Amino acid sequence: RDIALLSSVGVCPVVIHGGGPEINNWLNKLEISPKFEDGLRVTDQKTMDIVEMVLMGRVNKQVVRGINNTGSLAIGISGLDGNLIQSRELGNGSHGLVGEVSKVNPEILSPLIEGGYIPVISSIGSAMNGLSHNINADFVAGEVAAAINAEKLILLTDTPGILTDKEDAKSLVTQINLKQAREFIEKNIVSNGMRPKTECCIRALAQGVKAA
Length: 212
Fold this sequence. Notes:
five-stranded mixed sheet, four-stranded mixed sheet
């Protein structure tokens, strides 16, 4: 699963997680076929119910338990708690209940961070009409990083990273600037699931995060 760590100097990290493989596992159990467009999950209401159950009830607590087992203290929340992640429908609604971040309420996180706890946030957004939105965890991470003035955004994933040749793991790009990142997206060198990761890094850097 994808996880992002946001860190500020002298402050404990904030963790944002997705849970794509686990969601797919439960969709398959319920004989619901996953569908993706532009690297994002198309989400109808039935799928959204599974996304909420898996992210908030299962994956979030697995991550919390794992961190607590290291001796740190983690607290699991979702974007719904205290309207932490306020959202709106992505684009023209072609992805169903997929949303994008409209506002982050960092005040919810402040007392946790100041108390030495590690917030673990599942990437569910709260819409004005009372609906929940499935939001790509990378996008949530980038917006939260900007909202809390994080020193660094770190994306952890099971893919190698940006490859100039998708068939050659040795073509891994280890460092890239904003101009190159945008060019890679335009030329489709960065595509599918790597596209939202790259875009969230671009947005985070543009909003003041120092490194991604």
